[in-house]
Amino acid sequence: MPSAPYAWGVTARDEGVGESGYEFLEHTADVGVRSWGATPEVAFEQIAWALVDLLDIRGEGTGEARTIVTSSGDAAGLLVDFLNELIFIHETEEVAVSDIRVVGLSAEALEAEVETAPLARQPEGTVVKAATYHRVRVDRSPDGRTEARVFLDV
């Protein structure tokens, strides 16, 4: 797992933290991820890229475009379902991910455009079983900035 501080208290506005991004959080049995962005869509994209990088399946170039649609009663459920769909696509089709765009996000639905490509090599990342509801959070500030946290079962 990439090393990063256990940083529950860090916010996207802290010095040295970019406008959007992600970091891995330490945990004894799982892998935690925190992402942030100017909008909820950007924060969700960043956390999806963290999953892709943890799995070591970042692809290059163009591939097959697909749409992921999830629905849930809240933002945390949408996040978990979205990540689990990405895991499912990778595991069942053995593909890499070359682009992720959350194109629609409401209180109860998410739509993302994901581009997949054939794996160029055997991934050497961490095997992720699923995104979990353990300590999952999606927080949005009044200015729209969003921070998301999720723990992945590895």
Characterize this entry briefly.
With 154 residues, the protein is of the alpha+beta class. 23% of the residues lie in helices and 39% in strands. The protein has a four-stranded antiparallel beta sheet. Strands 3-5-4 form a three-stranded antiparallel beta sheet.
Please explain how this structure is put together.
The protein has 154 residues and is an alpha+beta fold. It has a single domain, classed as Archease domain (Archease, Possible Chaperone, Chain: A, domain 1, 3-Layer(bab) Sandwich). Helices cover 23% and strands 39% of the residues. The protein has helices at 40-55, 75-93; strands at 21-25, 31-37, 64-71, 95-105, 109-118, 130-140, 146-153. The strands form 2 sheets. The chain has a 4-stranded antiparallel beta sheet with strand order 1-2-7-6. The protein has a 3-stranded antiparallel beta sheet with strand order 3-5-4. Helix 1 packs parallel to helix 2. The longest helix is centred in the middle third of the chain and has 19 residues, at 75-93. It is globular and about 45 Å long. Mean pLDDT is 88; it is low at 1-16.
